[in-house]
Design a protein that fits this description.
Chain lengths: ~110, ~120
């Protein structure tokens, strides 16, 4: 049972344009969400997160939006840069209890110069 | 060290052999996690250590998998009688609780290939 879903395995975006990566979840206990970026042969690196008490969190070129009623979150990157080309993983956790991260399958983002 | 260190970075082993994967977390991080990423898959949770509490082993796929964390620091993931489906990148992460949320730092992983 895939509790965190990233339905787009890949996405190509022109440099300078906006990249939008989507993520859906099914577990209503999740109340904290994170985005990780992964380059080949490296571990995932934390990018941005959002708590369920918010619907938007912004950090520089990166903004994460959370729609709790739809159980949907998205990552916006603007403007997109060639260095943003990587695999992006969405992750979710319940703050109390296990606290392990549940990851999606990832979206490979390619920025076209 | 400055980051989470994993060794070896690559391991090729014959089917049926045992392997040990090592993780050195960031000093002071109380929680340590093992995940694996199989080809074309997301990160699959394996096991979680938190301080002196009993580990959460709910993600271990079979009894051939075990892990320990000695002295609250270094962790070893052991896979006995390896099978080809064990081939994956095994990632370790340690956690620092930051205000308002959680921060996980991942190592670069061990790429395990069972031939």
């Amino acid at each position: 049972d895939q509790q965190v879903k990233q339905n787009s395995p890949s996405l190509s975006v022109q440099e300078g344009r906006i990249s939008i990566l989507n993520c859906d979840y099914t577990n209503s206990m999740f109340d904290y969400f994170l985005w990780y970026k992964k380059y080949p042969a490296e571990g995932p690196t934390f990018l941005i997160s959002i708590s369920s008490i918010k619907d938007k969190n912004e950090d520089g070129r990166f903004t994460v939006f959370l729609n709790k009623s739809a159980k949907h979150l998205s990552l916006h990157i603007v403007p997109s840069q060639p260095g943003d080309s990587a695999v992006y993983f969405c992750a979710a956790t319940a703050r109390f209890g296990n606290e392990k991260l549940t990851f999606g399958t990832g979206t490979r983002l390619t920025i076209i110069p | 060290g400055a980051g989470v260190s994993q060794s070896p970075s690559n391991k090729v082993t014959e089917k049926g052999k045992d392997v040990e994967l090592r993780c050195d977390p960031i000093s002071g991080h109380t929680a340590l996690y093992w995940y694996r990423q199989s080809l074309g898959q997301g990160l699959e949770f394996l096991i979680y250590f938190q301080g002196n509490s009993a580990p959460d082993k709910s993600g271990l796929p079979s009894d051939r998998f075990s892990a320990e964390r000695t002295g609250g620091s270094v962790s070893t993931l052991t896979i006995q009688r390896t099978q080809q489906e064990d081939s994956a990148v095994y990632l370790c992460a340690s956690r620092l609780q930051i205000q308002g949320g959680y921060g996980y730092t991942f190592g670069s992983g061990t790429r395990l290939t069972v031939v």
